[in-house]
Amino acid sequence: MRHEDARAFADRWVRAWNAHDLDTLLEHFADDVVFTSPVAARLLGGDGVIRGKEALRAYWTEGLARIPDLRFEVLGVYVGVGTLVINYRNQVGGVVNEVLTFGGDTGDGGGLVTHGHGTYLDDGDNQAGLRVD
User: Fold this and answer.
1) What's residue 96's pLDDT?
2) How many other CB atoms sit within 10 Å of the CB of residue 100?
3) Residue 81 CB burial class (10 angstroms; 0-12, 13-18, ≥19)
């Protein structure tokens, strides 16, 4: 993946998140995507592994319901072989890396995300700012 393609992807990604537009966000994910996150474990229970695009949609829908003020600011974009890391700050000031691996990537960012990982700098109890009812 080229740096300019990675930056363009990250720009679309953050716009979709800040608009809470899951349809646009999920266009970039494969149907059989596997996504891991400690926030998923906290929000849904289990091991924090989400399997499949529809399960990812359900997780993110619940997340947005519990974090109505969700907003991200991209701090950096890192490129690897078929992999992109988006370093960002969330609405509670937490620093997060989203690690995304693309399948079928030809170097121009044309593949879909097949694996993703939400990783957090702080090990606090509420890194994502989930609203507790």
Assistant:
1) 94
2) 26
3) exposed
Query: What whole-number distance in Å separates Cα of residue 49 and Cα of residue 56?
Result: 10
The pLDDT, as a whole number, for residue 130 is 42
Q: Which helix or strand (DSSP H or E) is residue 115 part of?
A: strand 112-120
pTM of the entire predicted model: 0.87
In eight-state DSSP terms, residue 28 is T
Give CA angle at 15 (127, 110), nearest 5°.
Answer: 105
pLDDT value, residue 127: 52
Both tokens of 34, joined, read 């596997």
Condensed to tens digits (0 to 9), the pLDDT of residues 71-113 reads: 999 999 999 999 999 999 999 998 999 999 999 754 445 689 9
C-alpha dist (Å) from residue 8 to 35, 44, 65, 84, 122: 21, 31, 27, 11, 27
CB-CB contact of 69 with 91 (8 Å):
yes
d(CA 116, CA 120): 13
In whole numbers, what is the pLDDT of the chain averaged over residues?
Answer: 88
Q: Specify the DSSP class assigned to residue 73.
A: E
